[in-house]
User: Fold this.
Amino acid sequence: MLSAVKGIDTSHIPILVLSGTTDEFYGGVSSIYRQKDRIKNPRCRFMLMDKPGKNGHYDYLLSDEAIELRAKYSGEEIKVDNIQLYSAIDIDLFEEINSFLEL
Assistant:
């Protein structure tokens, strides 16, 4: 019988679990994050994304500017001149992710 906890505990690679506090897909914090105390793998790290406006299903991956632009077009057809800005990532978060993966 496999489970996410067993899979993480038997893995030999670094595992980073990100979860938003208001994740609309999971109805709050993801189920694997809620089981973090059961996980014994020392190479597993959990990050709870709780910054207001950047704590949903994936919005914490986006830059503040991208989130602001998306909010401007909420519920409307998106007419964006700069698609790169609309989908820009949070550089600081990705640097932290890269640091974790370089361990």
Remarks:
- The longest strand covers residues 15-20.
